[in-house]
Fold this sequence. Notes:
It is a single chain. By secondary structure, the protein is α/β, with parallel strands linked by helices. The protein has a single domain (3-227), classed as TIM Barrel. Helices cover 40% and strands 18% of the residues. The protein contains 8 helices and 10 strands. The mean pLDDT is 97.
Amino acid sequence: MNTLEVCCGSLASAVAAVEGGASRIELCSALSLDGLTPSIGLIREFRRLYPDLLIHVLIRPREGDFVYSEAEVQVMECDIREAADAGASAIVSGALTPEGDIDIKTTVRLVLAAEDLPFTFHRAFDLIADKPSALRQLAAMGVRRILTSGGAPTAEAGIPQLRSLVQLAQKVGGLSILPGGGVTSSNAHRILAETGATEIHGSCSHLLPNGLRQTSADEVRAVLAAIA
């Protein structure tokens, strides 16, 4: 069975995702900045509203690159523990070295801070040159999934690379590939069918009159219908 993970940057978006039938969301803030850590209040309130929903929480302390100082890593470890206490089902995070490789030491610390919660390495993965090597490293750390467009501008454009990553992940075992980036109801089926992935990630959003983007319950329904 295929799974849709809806990326939600606000309480209103998260509510719309559930109304559209989503059973799993990635909760964050500031989607205009590619997502930042949501407030603990938002996590707690959404868990109260939907006690059975799978809530994956993004941990990213600031905009910009994914090279973090020791102080920032300590903040991220604290945020992970607080998110877990607030009801997170899984953690989404990651770190890179200045050279653009997996920051193994930092990522291990983040995975350990998550304890028993599944850990997704986010789209910082798309910036890595040697993705097969990075996939093996992440699997060895206990990372459960990798959110990626295959290094392309969108998941649809990255289908060939995503297919290779899905095949490698199956051989390595222990983790899965989560295609994301430009996913819509018009391309979601093709992305899954041509990559062999069984889960997909998208915001399913539309533009509001005030200029903000918000998840559309109708688009969530349309994506779910497309991948059923």
